[in-house]
Design goal:
The complex is a heterodimer of chains A (439) and B (426). Chain A has 439 residues and is of the alpha+beta class. Chain A has helices spanning 60-67, 79-86, 111-123, 129-147, 150-158, 177-180, 185-195, 214-222, 271-282, 288-296, 327-337, 347-359, 361-364, 368-380, 386-396, 400-410, 425-429, and strands at 19-22, 28-33, 39-46, 90-95, 100-107, 202-207, 244-248, 254-263, 300-309, 314-323, 416-421, 433-434. In chain A, the strands form two sheets. Chain A has a six-stranded mixed beta sheet, with helices on both faces. In chain A, strands 9-10-8-11-7-12 form a six-stranded mixed beta sheet, with helices on both faces. The longest helix of chain A has 19 residues, at 129-147. Chain B has 426 residues and is of the alpha+beta class. Chain B is globular, with a radius of gyration of 23 Å. The chains are: A alpha+beta (439), B alpha+beta (426).
Chain lengths: 439, 426
């Protein structure tokens, strides 16, 4: 019992294959047949970047998406949701900078009853005056909660720290208090009419269908959907000058730190090597950051680095919370750990990171939800599910030299440093404390 | 297939040293979930050492006789697995989900720390993880608006000397006071094969699972299990006890709590359906009465099942800007009272069951969550088969069962109320 068992060869695994259907109206439907997954996971991704919002009415995409399930033209009011939930379904959705997502999870026994209702919410929502204005109020309340929460505030300010103010991505996806003032029920209804449609949209259905034909169910519900054929304008992130900021929260017992810089998207040939690099620095428990700042120093409960690819370019972020008195030291140590030129990655580090990134795939994609979400994320980037296996193969070929070179190439020497914490940190960080900005 | 007829194949055996082993073969993906459910939690702590069970959980990752500090997590992640541990009131669980070829290593790692932790745990590890846990407390509770609500509700629901009256994370004072002697005593008292359930769910046959369990855990000593003192079920609150908190929160908020019976009382599933009708989702009574009317920014209700003496139910609502918490509470109580008086409609009753079915099946769809539920079932419900039976049990709850249980436990006059009020500083 003293010798650690060796790890054998892993059985070959690949991401499930979808059956692809292209409806006449342009809607793509991907069906994943997953035996044993008795809850069907379904999602629709609309190719609807937030650049579709006119300047000054940021938040209209958020409010419209959140009010979809409050009733439909055919079934006004809460009767609609009651019918949907009677099937066992739950409906949810939201927006990102790139897309609006709406989905339902439903036991297979409820699929044929739930699907037409799901389609109704997307195609012909009521968007009644009261419901729209209540969701404006709820988003306003959400902003108040974010501003009161150190970690959420840091998250909300992250992209704005590196993206040019002219880019939509520099502002919160759900809109700001000031821009919410301009939103009216008419605006929500016209936003829906102008931007919700099958062109460029992808519908994913995953699960154990037990004899139900999901493609036919989807075609019945969405086949005669028509909508605008506008080509959405995806923005490419433009960088802003980067600096160090301290957002003041007097008396906070901990500070939230974000170190962030522009990075690349999945279509960049350096993507696999960069993903490996970020994993070594902050993607696992024994990453360079976590080993030093948590396991050696005891400064934090955990510190991570993640790469966030968008459709065109992306960004990478170091995130963690630290007790106030160690924040300046934690920032200095984190910045020095990001200096990969000074300490290139080793072959062993790369091998472990590659193994983590590729071998966890069967587990991550073992459920209908896992498969559907990943397929939708890729659809949002203009890619498809075949990318999962293709990326695995590329990750396996990454060398230490490639990972080192990619990181040095992409990560700048002057990332933005954002701290949300006690104003006494001003001296240690060498920057004046700013009041909490209004979102 | 009717979801209520889904049955997972389950096999159970007990090793000579008392370790219970549950195997759920499922070869749909080449992964095995390993779960060790230890029958020890924060309710087993003494009142001058709160937080010890959770601090101990951290030390379980700091190495054992043949594993270096941090390597348990590092080796599993490098093998393509997920790994962690959590501590709650009644239990501590440790789990890995690994590609099949790493199954032996995961079991060996778990067995090594259960067999040899005392040989390696040292002051440096304790000091480091004490700091980490204090950061966890700040990050998850102290630096978050309403972050202390659950602690306050439990402290309010139980007498000071009750095992559930203190939070799992513990107090800074007690964390500072914890010594290596405390850690060693805790391990000796609670970490033994006879107080654990080992569950394997995934790409493993029963024969293989039992053989590996014997190979890696069979040599561990047989030590008697310890029976926890039983606790009487405390009666419902009377006189509507109240606490007010001034805090740096963006909105005033109202939390009401009820004492319920403990696992495995038959009323608990009916009460779960009742709180679902009252407070789960946008069709729920509280959402309709409080959020659609713009009295609350959010509202909900749920039950939390506990093993010793009592469980609890909680209803919560955060004030819409400008609404007084007294007015919000009055509206909440009116909606609650109407439900207690009239019960659910047939449609609400069936909807709550349909929603439960989806949630339960979604949970079981993930091997790691299924393994965790099997360990819970074996420990708290006597048999892992509870996982297969539970959906049938919930689908069989009648409207009368639901109404009776609600009236017994959830009457508004049996609530206790915690009110958050925005302090001027915020």
């Amino acid at each position: 019992m003293t010798t650690r068992p060796r790890i054998g060869r892993q059985r070959a695994w690949s991401f499930p294959t979808a059956t692809e259907h292209l409806l006449d109206n342009g809607l793509r439907v991907w069906v994943f047949d997953l035996p044993g997954q008795y809850v069907i996971s379904t999602g629709l991704a609309l190719d609807l970047p937030l650049t579709a919002e006119s300047s000054g009415s940021e938040g209209i995409a958020h409010v419209t998406a959140h009010a979809l399930d409050e009733g439909t033209i055919a079934h006004p009011g809460s009767w609609f949701t009651e019918q949907l939930e009677n099937t066992g379904a739950v409906i949810g959705g939201g927006i990102t900078q790139l897309a609006t997502h709406i989905g339902i999870d439903v036991p297979v026994t409820g699929l044929t009853a739930a699907f037409p209702l799901f389609a109704e919410a997307i195609r012909t929502p009521e968007l009644a005056d009261d419901d729209v204005m209540r969701h404006v109020g709820l988003r306003r309340a959400e902003i108040q909660q974010i501003m009161a929460n150190s970690s959420q505030l840091a998250g909300a300010l992250t992209l704005g720290s590196i993206v040019d103010a002219d880019c939509r991505a520099s502002r919160p996806a759900g809109g700001m208090t000031a821009t919410l003032e301009t939103i009216t029920p008419d605006l929500a209804r016209s936003f829906h009419a102008e931007h919700y449609g099958p062109a460029g949209a992808t519908l994913v259905v995953a699960g154990d269908f037990a004899g139900v034909d999901p493609a036919a169910v989807a075609a019945d519900a969405f086949g005669d959907w028509s909508g605008p054929a506008t080509a959405p304008r995806h923005e490419s992130l433009r960088s802003a000058p980067r600096r160090r900021r301290l957002i003041s929260r007097p008396g906070a017992v901990q500070a939230d730190l974000r170190i962030v810089a522009p990075a690349i998207d999945r279509t960049d040939p350096r993507w696999p090597a960069f993903q490996v690099a970020c994993s070594i620095i902050g993607g696992t428990f024994q990453s360079r950051l976590n080993t030093q700042l948590r396991e050696r120093r005891g400064y934090t409960y955990g510190v991570y680095m993640s790469a966030s690819p968008l459709r065109s370019r992306g960004f990478a972020t170091v995130a963690g919370s630290f007790r106030t008195d160690v924040v300046p030291a934690a920032v200095d140590e984190a910045l020095s750990l990001l200096d990969v030129a000074a300490r290139p990655f080793t072959a062993r580090e790369v091998s472990r990171a590659v193994s983590y990134l590729t071998r966890t795939a069967p587990l991550r994609y073992a459920t209908a939800t896992g498969v559907a979400q990943q397929a939708l994320t890729l659809a949002t980037m203009g890619l498809d599910w075949r990318q999962v296996d293709a990326l695995s193969a590329k990750l396996a070929a990454v060398t230490a030299e490639q990972a080192t070179a990619a990181f040095i190439d992409i990560w700048p020497e002057d990332p933005a440093v954002l701290v949300v914490g006690d104003p006494s940190l001003s001296d240690g960080l060498g920057v004046d404390a700013e009041p909490t900005p209004s979102l | 297939m009717q979801p209520s007829l889904i049955t997972y194949p389950l096999h159970e055996r007990r090793l000579e040293n008392g370790l219970r082993v549950v195997v759920n073969p499922d070869s749909s993906v080449p992964v095995v979930a390993v779960n060790l459910w230890y029958d020890v939690g924060s309710s087993d702590e003494t009142h001058d050492r709160t937080g010890l069970a959770h601090l101990f959980e951290h030390l379980m990752f700091q190495g054992s006789a043949h594993v270096k500090s941090g390597d348990h997590l590092g080796l599993i992640q490098a093998a393509g697995g997920s790994v962690n541990g959590t501590t709650s009131y009644d239990r501590t669980n440790f789990f890995e989900a690994v590609p099949k070829p790493a199954l032996r290593m995961a079991m060996w790692l778990e067995a090594d720390r259960l067999g040899t932790l005392l040989e390696t745990v040292d002051q440096a590890s304790l000091d480091n993880q004490r700091d980490v846990v204090k950061e966890e407390k700040r990050q998850r509770y102290d630096n978050v608006p309403y972050g202390d609500v659950w602690h306050r509700l439990l402290a309010f629901s139980f007498p000071d000397d009750h095992p559930y009256a203190h939070p799992t994370i513990g107090s800074m004072e007690h964390l500072d006071a914890a010594t290596l002697t405390d850690i060693r005593a805790f391990f000796r008292a609670h970490y033994r094969a006879s107080r654990a359930v080992l569950t394997l769910a995934g790409d493993v046959t029963p024969d293989e699972g039992f053989r590996l369990a014997e190979q890696y855990f069979g040599h561990l000593p047989e030590q008697p299990g310890r029976r926890r003192p039983t606790l009487e079920t405390l009666p419902p609150h009377v006189g509507i006890p109240r606490r007010d908190v001034q805090a740096a929160v963006p909105r005033d908020a109202v939390y009401a709590t009820w004492r319920l019976p403990a696992i495995p009382h038959p009323d608990l599933e009916a009460l779960g359906l009742a709180t679902s009708v009252l407070g789960d989702g946008i069709t729920s009574r509280l959402h309709q009465a409080l959020v659609r009317t713009e009295l609350a920014e959010g509202a909900g209700a749920f039950t939390m099942s506990l093993a010793r003496g009592n469980s609890v139910a909680v209803a919560s609502a955060r004030c819409w800007e400008g609404v007084a918490p007294e007015d919000l509470e009055a509206a909440l109580v009116a909606a609650w009272q109407q439900f207690v008086d009239e019960g659910p409609t047939d449609e609400e009753h069936e909807r709550a069951q349909a929603q439960f079915a989806r949630e339960w099946l979604s949970e079981l769809a993930a091997l790691d969550q299924r393994a965790d539920r099997l360990g819970q079932a074996a420990t708290l419900y006597g048999s892992p088969d509870w996982v297969n039976q539970r959906l049938r049990t919930v689908m069989a709850v009648t409207r009368d069962d639901l109404v009776d249980a609600t009236r017994r436990w959830l009457a508004p006059e049996h609530r206790a109320v915690l009110t958050y009020r925005t302090s001027e500083a915020s």
